[in-house]
UniProtKB/TrEMBL annotation:
Transmembrane segments: none annotated. Residues 9-115 form the HTH marR-type domain. GO terms for molecular function: DNA-binding transcription factor activity. Pfam families: HTH_11. This is Putative ArsR family transcriptional regulator.
Length: 242
């Protein structure tokens, strides 16, 4: 077949919406990330992916930043990394935000801050109880962090975990309650404390989407295996956001 110079890996116009959503999803889950990496994972050409990313940037749904240089500075422009803005994350849904905020405001008026905190603790406790056994069955802190990321992803948080320095870094790329937590930080605070209790170690919340960061990031220090049963009561000093 004669090469006419056309980018045949580009997706047909009728599929642009689904492809752009897939591109945005990778920016959400892995950002900051390069266009080349997105193209490789989706099986598209870099040109096709850049077209979608440029559209997301033009619509205010994504932004770019320069990738940090490693080693000796070379020639040419530095690589660009892309990630979603708050507007871009909104395409993945903030269902019932207004209702949730209104309900918590009413709860705060009727029962004060402690009532809001009690609600937040009960909410995260339901999540922890459901996934505790699977997470604590893992051999070490690295595996437990990965298991926690899997559990959070199943709950809609698009989470991942990786080794960083002397511990593990848990990243939640999507927060279904970010808009609510922006007004009621008790949701983030009780979540951090629950992670510490579940893992049996002090954890540190480094960033949150609710505060305007791109990702909710939690540092989990390396710890030896903890042998406990699902019903054991783990205690910790918790962890307050940085």
């Amino acid at each position: 077949m004669k090469n006419d110079g056309t980018d045949h890996t580009a997706v047909p116009a009728g599929h642009d919406g689904r492809t752009r959503h897939a591109v945005a999803r990778l920016l959400l889950e892995q950002g900051p990330v390069t266009a080349a990496s997105v193209a490789e994972q989706l099986g598209l050409s870099p040109t096709a992916v850049r077209r979608h990313i440029d559209a997301l940037v033009a619509d205010g749904e994504a932004i770019s930043r320069e990738a940090p240089r490693r080693g000796q500075r070379g020639r040419g422009r530095p690589a660009k990394l892309f990630l979603l803005t708050e507007q871009g994350r909104a395409r993945f849904g903030h269902a019932y935000d207004d209702l949730a905020v209104a309900a918590l405001r009413f709860l705060a008026e009727q029962g004060g801050e402690e009532a809001v905190r009690a609600f937040a603790e009960r909410r995260v406790s339901a999540f922890v109880d459901q996934h505790r056994a699977a997470i604590l069955a893992q051999a070490d802190s690295a595996e437990r962090a990965k298991a926690l990321a899997v559990a959070l992803t199943r709950e809609g948080y698009a989470a991942s975990a990786r080794h960083v320095g002397a511990g593990e870094q848990l990243c939640q790329h999507l927060c279904p309650v970010a808009h609510v937590a922006a007004e009621f930080p008790q949701l983030c605070e009780t979540e951090t404390a629950a992670f510490a209790d579940l893992l049996g170690t002090h954890v540190q919340r480094l960033a949150t989407i609710a505060r305007g960061d791109a990702v909710c990031t939690t540092h989990i220090p390396n710890t030896p295996r903890i042998t406990v049963g699902p019903a054991d009561d783990l205690t910790s000093d918790g962890g307050e956001p940085a």
